[in-house]
Amino acid sequence: MSAGPTNAGRTSAGRPGAGPAPGPVAGHPVARRDFVEVVLGFARTLRHAGVPAGPDRVQAMLTALGHLDVLDPNQVYWAGRLTLCGDPADLDRYDAAFALYFGGRRPAAGRTATDPPPMLRPAPYEPDTAGEQQQDEDSPAFAVHASRHELLRHKDVGALSPGEREQLQRLFALLAPRASGRRSQRYTAAPRGRVDLHRTVRRMLAQGGEPAELARRRRLRKPRRLVLLVDVSGSMAPYADWLLRFGHAAVRRAPFGTEVFTVGTRLTRVTRELRLRDPDEALAAAGRAVPDWRGGTRLGDTLKAFLDRWGQRGVARGAVVVLCSDGWERGDPAELGSQLARLARLAHAVVWVNPHKGKDGFAPVTGGMVAALPHIDSLVAGHSFAALAELVEVIADA
Amino acid sequence: MAPVDPQTLDPASLGHALEQAGYLPDEGLSTAAFLALRMHRPLFLEGDAGVGKTSLAHALAEVTGADLVRLQCYEGIDASQALYDWDFPRQVLHLRATEAAGGGGYHDARELEHSLYDRRFLIARPILRALEHSPSVLLIDEIDRADDEFEAFLLEVLADNAVSIPELGTIRAETPPLVVLTSNRTREVHDALKRRCLYHWVAHPSYEREVAILRRRLPEVSERLAREVAAAVRRMREADLLKPPGVAESIDWAQALHLLGADSLDAERAAATLGAVLKYQEDAVRIRDTVLAELAG
Lengths: 398, 297
Prior knowledge:
Chain A has 15 helices and 8 strands. Chain A is α/β, with parallel strands linked by helices and 398 residues long. By secondary structure, chain B is of the alpha/beta class.
């Protein structure tokens, strides 16, 4: 993210020789500044706004400007937008950063994506009783440790001490959620199956055209896409952090076969943020990206936004979709029902994770749950590590 | 029409040339196309279905006087379908024919083997075809449908505009083809591929532009009908539908209305032809209750 001096040096070294005369872009107060510097400064602003404009993209912008008129703000705008952005989500941020940096022109179309305050706090480190057993390492202590471990697995993640949290976070590295496979269009060589004409003829050729042993092939199996929709509203606050950690484990397992979104009052895609290797960093990045942390719940509307923008295009098609929510719907439950019906038609399987299911006396009576039940394939608890480990199996068998 | 010369071009004149070819780009799109030509970078177009991503490639081919080579992606596409393949049956035939002719003038086995891997036994698939026939426009359509293994392979080809065939050597393009990639965003394409490209999000056209597109593509349609169709389609896009209509749909719709003899948009004909513009039953019901009900007055 940071634009260090090394980046700057490398990029300006690669500056196109045929660059136009240096000059500030129209409207910029600083006169006669080298335009490479202006572009580098702009890229820095853009990175702060959350667009990952790396040095190669910046160099592409400089090259593009070499072919255009640097004094025409429109051309500068397009040179940057075409080279520095790589995703529709970048465009709003680009517009905002452009307006900020070059002043006044092209105000942000929608929301401005300047840093919202980080809302996910990493658990404070606090060594608890687990650390005290380091002195005597004989078997009883191990037994105690093991049972403590087992207890932790089944403990409600909403009611953990900071020490337990820290311990459980390490356990999450063991989770590897992956959706079940489906027959893909690709073939692979196999000892039996249909005759692979291509390879058979190739073998024949290798033997001077003599008939050879038949080569065979079968279809490959390919894991289905896994889509996680995590409710981050106030009522889900004790669990959302853990469910996002679960999402991180899934993204780490299959970076391009997994999509994670947060739902609440609005839909936010956090897949990109969760691709960071370190779970704490990934969660902090996701926390910065989610604007409606601990807000209300309008599941029907956000589910609709998901289906309109992502699901129907293909993200949900044939996928295993996991919706994590307690079903406290503030909007119209009927809307949630019809959107879930739409989702069920697109997806291979819909799994609902309700943390309250693991509690005694649970009955799916909240408005949202009642509306949802006819359209979901399975309802599982997600309140403890053990329950999440079970979720991994449900996903794999879906 | 004489092909444009990329060296003496600017975005506005390229936009003008595209208009001559029947494609009406906005400022962003003509700048994108101009930079793709000048910087020899692939152009990566994303946007809703039916906004004219594919037709831009056709128009660019016409404007630059190049051949259009199209590679339609699908799941499971691999190098032998995208790049090249050996014509094995013909190779076997050649071998047998040589045998039957008693050696066919080949001095030794090595020479015979060499003759098997001749260019004439190579089947050029779209990418190789685009590299061999310059100038050309290579349209890689719906890259999001291919699986991600294919992207890695594509990266390699796009990076050096050359294909190396182990048995034959490297085939390099004289002038690199202009590559246009399109995606409907059914899945996210790797950043590594996007980074090498100019990225452009193709939005729905403005009302005025859409009228102009309708007039251009369907000269037989009356101005009034074109305006009313564009206005109605614009309202449909704002109506929060499952599948908002693209330009392709509004062209279809205008044409369907015209074929029914309409000079202007009336509720009855609109209802009869709604299937040309809306593809979901739920959407049709919703529009019938709102936009069409207003038309009926």
